[in-house]
Amino acid sequence: MKKRVRRELLVYLGMVAPALVIYLFIVAYPVVYSVLLSFSDFNPNRGGVWNFVGFRHYETMLADSNFWYALKNNMIVVGISVFGQIPIGFMLAYILFRKMVKARIFFQTIVFLPHFLSTIVIGIMWKRLFQADGPVSRLIQMITGDPTAQFELMLYPETVMIPIGFALIWIYTGLYMIIFLANLQKIDENLMEAAKIDGATESQIFLKVIVPILAGTILISTILAIAGSLRGFDLIFSITTQGLQRNNAMVLPIFMYQTAFQNYTNEMRFAYGAAISNAIVVISLILILFSRLLSRKRDF
Amino acid sequence: MGTNTNTSRVRRNGGSMKSTRQWIAPVTAALLVFLVGVTGCQKAEVETAAVKQVVVKTMAYGDNSNQEGINWVRIVNAFEKANPDINIDYEMLYDEAYHQKVVARLAAGDVPDLAYMGADARWGAPWKEAGQQFDHTDYIDSDFYDFSLIPAMGPDGEIYEIPLGTSNITTVLYMNEKLVKSLGFSRPETYQDMVAMVPAAKKAGIEVVSIDGADGWAWGSCYMSAVVARMSGDPQWVSKAVAGENKFTDTVMVDSLSMISRMVDDGVISSKSVLVDYGGNIAAYNNEKALFMVQGQWVAGSIENPEVSENTIMMAWPRLPGEKPATAGSVAAAIQVGYGLTQKGASDPEVRDAALKFLRYFYSEPETTQRLRDGAIVAPILKGYEVPDDLPTIVKRKVDLAQTAMSTDVIDAFLSGDANDALNTGMQKIANGSATAKEVAKQVESLVQR
Fold this sequence. Notes:
Chain A is mostly helical. Chain A is 74% helix and 0% strand. Chain A is flat and about 75 Å long.
């Protein structure tokens, strides 16, 4: 190796190494640790030795009805994100881009505003809205004329995801709107003008011109939505109260948290929790691969 | 050509000067930040060098908006001023955030030297599991603390933490006596007396009994712990059930759980209570929206409406239908939580001595009196402590209750994990009509057996 090349390599390594070391320590190490832990009986609180237990925790997880219930709720969140936040965000961005409303900056700011707030604060705020005799209950009482009426959707497993879904759309739609708006602004307006001259309607312009151009953005947004939905913990944790509501709205990260950090009766709870967290990663990857596959088939 | 060359050279030089200007500002700023940092560090080092400090890493309980947290900050500041050689390096958290962080810190090996802790299944479990419980018996002054008021916390009478006060009553029925009288009633002697209040309370647009039923733990700690002891006539029914001597499917437990649906059907507890959280419960009572409130003794200090506080009677549940005479008028009480050294903190004599010195300051008579006045404790554990005559009325009533009522097991002091969660959630389901007492009892027993 030439002296100059060697020196350049050293400079390159010197520049990359600090970031690489930090990355390996902060990201790679916990991931590897989590995978190893999930195949062991180790409890970090107790210390002691690691014993290999094979797939025992994964088998327990698959036999646990709570896992499937949490997964179902997670899929609902994914559905809300992919089929709720993204289309609404896209539509809003298109309305703003095509100047279909006045005071565009105002609407843009209002829709994006929730994204500036802490998710915990948002969760607590929505919890207050849904509480006994809270604003939503008062509204129901006013409409129905029944002073005892309450907003009870949070109390039942069949309905709990409806108000949560509403809150999720309220928070994250603004983000997708901004992403789509930024990409829409890069489109050459002549394309749309040409389509218009050729007699295309507004909906045809949207479906035949805009959507295909933004297919890549839709895919990226879908991946972001899936990943965000599966690791979502903070909003659901803070919007629910401890006990019935949280159990009704249990998603995989909350199931993992309750298993690993609260169930003292299970001595291997950390290892079991690690297995659940690894399952979350695997499910995320499967969904992302599926969405990529789908996009390829549609020539996105 | 020459001109062109010169021009391009000038441009290059100009560009170079421009780019120099571009990077010189951020570099100067970074240099300034660095210099300020270095100077600051040097100053800190000089200050530290003057007084060698013993650092006591502490996990404190409270937040900046409640009395517990405000007092903690004040006490630490005063202590550090009086003892510049000791640094109480604390992290203060409250409620669920505290419990989460304890587990996370212990699992990560980041063990504090001193911490707010308990000795039961809820407050003591993580410390016990991590092997961090330390027996204080030989290290605390028996002339200062009254050992007869500190219950045994381990199999050999160990003291793992210094309780803030004597027993922690969790099943208090707070009664707004003035409000009850305004509806033409008096202190209830039986459950039926409470049922009789329902029509008048409904007419007045207020609840009879308010409970933070949206919080699962409130049903177990603050309600069912009292009911099951009453129905069984055995103060230790819960601990015996956890030990396998009783079953959660026994008639006693099923009848106790059935009391929830009975109370909801009778209108004594509202079905909407499962939507009321801790803060909402206290607010409802403070705002005279309920005749009674179910909570623990620690809430006495949160009744901030002076008129309500003055007119509050702290009592045990009145006689329940089907209750046994042996436990009549009883309340559930657990060992009070407090501060304790960990094994890690105790392993370093310097840290241990500094922490014990701080604890003596923290539990000093003036601070204990303040805690008593704030309504945070039932009674002090200090030797020869004389209760001041000018305590708030509500505090005197709390002491009366503690001195007269029989104490029984608190459920989550013995039952933990999935089984406790299933019981708490199950009670919420009974209250909103989505589960029966038998179903809940069966599920809890199966989880205890597992």
